[in-house]
Design brief:
homodimer; DNA Polymerase III, Chain A, domain 2; nine-stranded antiparallel beta sheet; eight-stranded antiparallel beta sheet; elongated; nucleotidyltransferase (chains A, B); Beta sliding clamp (chains A, B); 3'-5' exonuclease activity (chains A, B)
Chain lengths: 368, 368
């Protein structure tokens, strides 16, 4: 193998695949980045066996071939080299020479045959979805997945495709996030994708790219294609919870409120709430105002926000973290908060559309 | 106590003093910020008994008095409040109310009498030094202080004042940094200031402020005044090493080299050197070029830089960290490297002036 390519494009490619490289593995080969020179392009691959990322870049191929280089060392070297052409040449199958202007590295490398193949996925039956929409859908759901590995299915996000609509759902036993979007599809399908995969997919999406991301689901894997990058991930096994029966159909109190004001007030209230274990903040909804209170041994806080209330007055308490996590990802200036009783879930949704629903369980407090 | 002041200026003041607030102390009062309302200004103070910082801000004083508020909570609250006037009022001596628009906090506070007084320093006999120059002198010396608490005197920087000149010196047993500057002074004086103090002083210096910083030294303390901020620090006790006898008077090889190129090459070489414990890089100086090499079990690197050599060829090895630390703080485009033998110290200094000298001990390596 012998190739020449610009420092910038090689570094960009390494940055894309490096997030899938394992740092904790006992298999040394998985700490490496696979590079393969074929016809007129260079393929760069990383994988930790859960996620694999493959990126293609243009390069001058003087000699075809492949090798595997330690990911950390390779990325550090390429990052520190000047913005010029880099010459990479395989010598004797266990040493790779990297030259750039007056710098020359000789690095021990691995046998490319030992590098695991990414799963083969027949690239038909694609769903297409605009990149910005998909990034937004990930952002609005992925934070609500469970961190608890004892119920693995809840560490992922359900993708549910039905008649040109895509629902993404995450829940962790305390809150639920449901985001609806449009997709090009003839058939129904569903899969549970690990949260980490979706975070990586969001990272490789290009902000201004008008070309949609393409998604392909098989029984065990999901494939995401955007531009010159492919990401393949294992799916989570098992049945996802029937989330539709969790969502309340009606409410007794509906509050219309400014999203930013609510976030700021709850954030300040949580400065005192955080001293307690449950981050408790109390909402007292009364006519045209909402009072938010919180207290701990350090003191107490009292916040007032003007609201529009439809229905009954109510007092209800929540873990402030669950409120703030969701308020951070609303793009809407105003939202509805819907409540039924102070022991049943609260619902947040945008005032102007139906595409997002966030449910959070209240905390029971004594009535004084 | 009852005051009103704008959120921005209060937050700025808290940010200045907060760095001197102790986080690890067993004395709860030291985790607090002292605020005192007197005539037409507000005094904000923090101290950990080693360093004390005092800042004055303009405020509307409705009622004079003082209190002490937990620093972390206070700064978090003020940071999260909107950009509006903040009303702070002491109630019953153990509770302080903080109001801003529709937010109101009641916070438990401490008795201001329990807060330690900062040392009294008679503010005569000042040295004045331009802020930018002093920041630069700190930056070029403080990194070379020792981290090893077993020789406390080396954890500080020597300030040596003599006939309008100020020398600042730091050394840790492996390297020495000496920076010379001009100061307004009639008398000679010296003191060893803790490295942490100087880092904090550099932080409170204002980039564009034309007014010099004022420094006052007493037997046990140093006082730094800049604008509305005073910083008082304990001095380190003991005799500083007689550094002048460490500096070599002559050299056998003088290399003129581009600072940035040398930094970049040594940084790349150190990517492999870091695998070894001593970060070893070897310089082979020969006629019009310097070759930098390094190797480890992961591979090796070879860098070439064009130089101007006056005197003998030489091969010498160093800990790359000690080279890079200094190359980072040179403002000069070109520097001299002076060597005598491969077991005697190397010297770096700017080509165009005499104000900075950095000395570093070589590492002995076998001759092959």
């Amino acid at each position: 193998m012998h190739i020449i390519c610009p420092q910038k494009s090689l570094l960009n490619s390494i940055n894309i695949v490096q997030k899938s490289v394992s740092t904790k593995t006992t298999l040394p080969i998985l700490r490496g980045i696979y590079i393969e020179a074929a016809s007129n392009q260079l393929k760069i691959v990383g994988t930790d066996l859960e996620i694999g990322i493959e990126n293609l870049i243009e390069a001058e191929i003087l000699d075809e071939g492949a090798t595997v280089i330690d990911a950390r060392l390779f990325s550090d070297i390429i990052r520190k080299l000047p913005d010029a052409d880099i010459d990479i040449k395989l010598i004797d199958n266990n040493q790779v020479n990297i030259k750039c202007l007056n710098a020359e590295f000789s690095i021990v490398c691995h046998n490319p045959d030992d590098f695991p193949d990414l799963p083969e996925i027949s690239e038909d039956n694609f769903y297409k979805i605009p990149q910005e929409l998909f990034r937004n859908m990930i952002k609005q759901t992925v934070f609500a997945t469970s961190q608890d590995e004892s119920r693995p299915i809840l560490t992922g996000v359900l993708l549910e495709i039905d008649q040109n609509s895509l629902n993404m759902v995450a829940l962790d036993g305390y809150r639920l996030a449901l985001r609806k979007g449009k997709i090009q599809s003839d058939i129904s399908n569903k899969a549970v994708i690990p949260a980490r995969t979706l975070s990586e997919v969001a990272r490789i999406l290009e902000v201004d790219n008008e070309k949609p991301i393409e998604i392909c689901l098989t029984e065990n894997h999901a494939l995401f294609i955007t531009g010159k990058t492919k990401l393949i991930s294992r799916l989570l096994e098992g049945e996802f919870i029937n989330y539709k029966q969790i969502l309340p159909k009606e409410y007794k109190s509906r509050v219309k409120i400014n999203t930013r004001n609510l976030y700021n007030s709850i954030e300040r209230a949580s400065l005192l709430a955080r001293e307690g274990k449950n981050n408790l903040v109390k909402l007292i909804i009364n006519d045209d105002k909402m009072i938010i209170t919180s207290n701990s041994e350090l003191g107490k806080v009292h916040e007032e926000i003007v609201i529009l209330l439809e229905g009954d007055d109510i007092e209800i308490a929540f873990n402030s973290k669950y409120f703030m996590d969701a308020l951070k990802v609303f793009d809407d200036e105003e939202i509805y908060l819907d409540f039924t009783t102070n022991i049943s879930p609260g619902i947040m949704k945008p005032v102007d559309n139906e595409n997002y629903t966030y449910l959070v369980l209240p905390v029971r407090v004594s009535s004084n």
